[in-house]
Amino acid sequence: MRSAVILTSVCAVLALPSAIHADGHAEDLEALFEAIQLDGNIAQMRAEGIGYGEDLALEMFAPSAEAISPQWRAAVDSLNNASDIREIFVEELAGSLADADISAMLEWFESDLGASIVDLELSARIAMMDDDIEEANRAAAALARIDDPDRIEQIAELIDVWDAVGNNVAIILNANVAFMQGLSAGQMPESELLSLVLNQEPEIRSETTEWIVSYLYAAYGPLSDEDLDAYIAFFDSEAGRTFNTVTFRAFEEINIQISRGLGIAAFEEMMVQDL
Q1: Cα–Cα distance, 237 to 100 (Å, whole number)
Q2: Short-list 250, 265, 256, 260, CA closest to 76
Q3: Would you list the domain boundaries of the chain?
Q4: Residue in 149, 148, 199, 147 with CA at minimum distance from that of residue 176
Q5: Contact 120/220 with Cβ under 8 angstroms?
Q6: Which end of the chain has fewer CB atoms surrounding its CB within 10 Å, N or C?
Q7: pLDDT in the model for residue 275
Q8: Where on the phi/psi map is residue 139: left (φ > 0), alpha (ψ -120 to 50), or beta?
Q9: Which letter does DSSP use for residue 102 in this model?
């Protein structure tokens, strides 16, 4: 499962919309995008999206990877276009942070500890794409509940401050609704569609919780307890809460747009195969 947990990457040469350049926050926004390594995270989101598209094809209409059609691969590639993802994210954050004090966010993410955590999170997320590493991380986190309970408690506190499980579950459910809307070509009644998706909630919540804990336990292994406490304190501040809220909002918009497009592409793929 690929879960949108936290954004931790940016680009140094980001082309911001002209309306943003007119805003006094422009330079701070550019610096914030660089500090969180936006380009690296977008590249990772694209890689995860391409992988998910292949898994979806194998589940729905292709008996093997070799049988996945060029049309489907092209659709998945286009929907996970890095420039489009970047544009959505930048516009969402620029609009949401127009009246926010960005200096406290910059102070954290440009600090040595903040920059180190950005690196750790992105590296761990890339590693989790390897099924063997993901399985090993899940096993390590499960064992840590007995052998390293204090660190698990710290991670649980951070997850609670982020509302990471609730936010991710909401993103996944809304993305699934968008996918089903595209797949059904508007023919499935809204009430039936929502009921179908909501029935998935308990399983999604359980899987999301396990993935997040295993990911964060692996990512924060090099950090001291004091380092992690400082991270929790930042996200428990006004600046941290604001950053967390707008980041998840941007992720949600990105996931909804991609998922709706995937649903439409899957519908078209099945129509072609039926001919």
Answers
A1: 13
A2: 265
A3: 18-274
A4: 199
A5: yes
A6: C
A7: 57
A8: alpha
A9: -
